[in-house]
Design brief:
Blueprint (H helix, E strand, L loop, with lengths): L2 E7 L3 H10 L8 E8 L2 E8 L2 H7 L10 E7 L14 E2 L5 E9 L2 H10 L11 H10 L4 H11 L2 E9 L6 E6 L4 E4 L3 E5 L11 E4 L4 E5 L4 E4 L5 E2 L4 E2 L15 H7 L1 H9 L3 E2 L2 E2 L8 H5 L3 E6 L1 H18 L3 E5 H4 L10 E7 L5 H12 L3 E6 L5 H5 L2 E4 L12 H20 L5 H22 L2 H11 L4 E6 L2 H17 L2 E6 L16 E5 L6 H12 L4 E7 L11 E5 L7 H19 L18
Parallel strand pairs: 18-19, 18-20, 20-21, 21-22, 23-24, 23-25, 25-26, 26-27
Antiparallel strand pairs: 1-4, 1-10, 2-3, 2-4, 5-6, 6-7, 7-8, 8-12, 9-10, 9-11, 11-15, 12-13, 13-14, 16-17
This protein binds 2-deoxy-2-amino glucitol-6-phosphate (AGP).
């Protein structure tokens, strides 16, 4: 996820671009850049690193005199953070400058095509294909050109485009990635999000998918892909400017919970092609895959919990033995690793010290390392033999949500990919799994609509002293994550327990009023969970059950039931975790705690 801004009007543009980008750094901050229409034509300044580095390059905004320009702050997806990979990207001749938020899914095909046409690529990004494609199609009308580009490009994008032939206007277009138009007096803006322009205007257009906008200082025209002008209604933003930093949400964590459908779609969609899982940048040979003896999954915290789900899923799909270990234990356990061991390391930040050390130990022992990482170009991403990026965008809240969810989907895809490559899965079953992956974002959207019910339940139990999370099989794996979410942001003691294990001691802790969250979505074990609910109810527990729609018999046993949409068992963990995230969020909110920055914690634990 990146942030883009654009301006045309009577003011000096560079300071405005820097100001706008500073309000969008939450969307990405590994590099930044601007393109300004100066008296010399389009001039670009861009740099790896935080926005402050770019600001220094621009003398705080005094450099690059002009009244029109575009800017970008990046969360790297294709190509690690670097000066060259930073946006804006110029076309071959320098006539066009482009900034982009989103993912061009067919960029490799377009890159090959344009290379054959004589274009030279400087960066590793998907975005650069847009800059050259605009030049390739341009015959004098920039809107016509954008329409041609749209017909060629697959994926998600919000684009700002400068054309040297047009010093008084620029264009923008969106598909899936957000883009708004700010309407000023003698000046107009584009931005990925409202905070970037709110100090200049509260009047905006929300662009719909496939709408193209042309802006001059005094005019804004919106077109559809048939080049028919579209009439837009003006929306007046009534937000408090500070709340808008989080896109109108009170906390980054809530915003990131709500972003999960888009984050999952961005991570999964580009990797489903012709009904199969395609992991372009993975170099696991058939020979290697056939000879894998064992898979280790190594991670910390929530990433470790993804690994616990991964064990069930990978073993179910491939029958390859999987062992899951917390990184801080793995590295000192003298693990049994050799060249036929695939060690999967999972990390949102890619900078967690324990996970880095575990990965290095695995390599030292001859294992092959496969990283699932969110931060492009991070230490783990750079050192692993293979990297499967989650494209969740920057996750600001310390308590992970969307990164966890995209990691789950990465594990699902890895499991299916290996099963495909080893011909272990029948086509009809593969098709069912892929359909489940494609439908998941919509099901999570439906779950998120139900947040009020979860807020109500949280309001009844936010003063609890202890909460147990019970589950079996995949539900147990998710119970681990639900328990951690509650602990880390509400400071309430909590334990996740394999439901069948409770009676072997821990049930002694259940007493009148103890809150138990029972996850009951694994169909084959539903009756066993009903029995476990009865056991704890008999000792005075209050039970909040999570069940798949239709299993209404649970209402006779539990005090509250939260239903999740019916789905393929493979992706059910992705549904079940959402109410648990929301429950923890609302409990912490009701306790008035610092949800985004919980005490004692850090977003990336870069020390042992
Ligand atoms: C989860 O909400 C916590 N922030 C923490 O457990 C986190 O998952 C863990 O520190 C691992 O971080 P990583 O994914 O960046 O390696």
């Amino acid at each position: 996820m990146c942030g883009i801004v654009g301006y045309v009007g009577k003011q000096q543009v560079t300071p405005l671009l820097l100001e706008g980008l500073s309000k969008l750094e939450y969307r990405g901050y590994d590099s930044a850049g601007v393109a300004v229409m100066t008296e010399h034509g389009i001039e670009v300044k861009k740099s790896k690193g935080r926005l402050s580095i770019l600001s220094d390059m621009l003398d705080g905004g005094d450099a690059l005199k002009g009244n029109m320009g575009i800017g970008h702050t990046r969360w790297a997806t294709h190509g690690e953070p670097s000066d060259t990979n930073s946006h804006p990207h110029l076309s071959q001749s320098g006539k066009f400058a482009v900034v982009h938020n989103g993912i061009i899914e067919n960029y490799m095909k377009l890159r090959t095509y344009l290379t054959q046409k004589g274009f030279t690529f400087l960066s590793e990004t998907d975005t650069e294909v847009i800059a050259h494609l605009v030049e390739y199609y341009y015959e004098g009308d920039i809107v016509d050109t954008v329409i041609k580009v749209m017909n060629k490009v697959e994926g998600s994008y919000a684009l700002g485009i400068l054309c040297a032939d047009q010093p008084d206007s620029f264009v923008a277009v969106r598909k899936e990635s957000p883009l708004i138009v700010g309407l000023g007096e003698g000046e107009n803006f584009i931005a990925s999000d409202i905070p970037a322009i709110l100090s200049h205007t509260r009047k905006v257009y929300f662009l719909e998918n496939n709408e193209i906008v042309m802006l001059t200082a005094d005019q804004v025209k919106v077109f559809n892909p048939d080049k028919e002008e579209v009439t837009k209604s003006v929306y007046t933003v009534d937000w408090d400017i500070h709340a808008a930093e989080k896109g109108g949400y009170e906390h980054f964590m809530f915003k990131e919970i709500m972003e999960q459908p888009r984050a999952i779609a961005d991570t999964v969609k580009p990797r489903i092609k012709d009904g199969t899982i395609v992991l372009d940048d993975i170099s696991l040979s058939d020979e290697y895959l056939k000879n894998i003896q064992k898979i280790y999954i190594v991670a910390c915290g929530s990433a470790y919990h993804v690994g616990v789900v991964g064990k069930y899923v990978i073993e179910e799909m491939t029958r390859i033995p999987v062992e899951v270990s917390v990184a801080s234990e793995f590295r000192y356990a003298n693990p049994i690793v050799n060249e036929r061991t695939l060690v999967v390391v999972i990390s949102q930040s890619g900078e967690t010290a324990d996970t880095i050390a575990a990965m290095r130990e695995a390599k030292r022992l001859g294992g092959r390392t496969f990283a699932i990482v969110n931060a492009v170009g991070s230490a783990i991403a750079r050192e692993a033999d293979d990297v499967l990026y989650t494209w969740a965008g920057p996750e600001i809240a310390v308590a992970t949500t969307k990164a966890y969810s995209t990691q789950l989907n990465a594990i699902y895809m890895l499991s299916l990919y290996v099963a495909q490559r080893l011909s272990l899965i029948e086509p009809v079953k593969l098709a069912a799994y892929i359909k489940a992956l494609e439908e998941l974002p919509e099901k999570i959207e439906k779950l998120l609509e139900n947040k009020g019910e979860i807020q109500y339940i949280a309001s009844k139990y936010y003063n609890s002293k202890s909460v147990f999370f019970l589950g079996r099989s995949l539900d147990y794996a998710v119970a681990l994550e639900g328990s951690l979410k509650l602990k880390e942001i509400s400071y309430i003691h909590s334990e996740a327990y394999a439901a069948g294990e409770l009676k072997h001691g821990t049930i002694a802790l259940i007493e009148e009023g103890t809150v138990v969250v029972a996850l009951c979505t694994v169909k084959s074990l539903f009756d066993k969970m009903l029995s476990n609910i009865k056991e704890v109810k008999a000792r005075g527990a209050v039970v909040i059950a999570i069940a798949e729609e239709g299993h209404t018999e649970i209402e006779h046993e539990a005090d509250h039931v939260i239903y999740v949409p019916k789905s393929n068992p493979l992706v059910m963990p992705s549904e079940v975790v959402v109410p648990l995230q929301l429950f923890s969020y609302y409990v912490s909110s009701l306790k008035g705690l610092d949800i985004d920055k919980p005490r004692n914690l850090a977003k990336s634990v870069t020390v042992e």
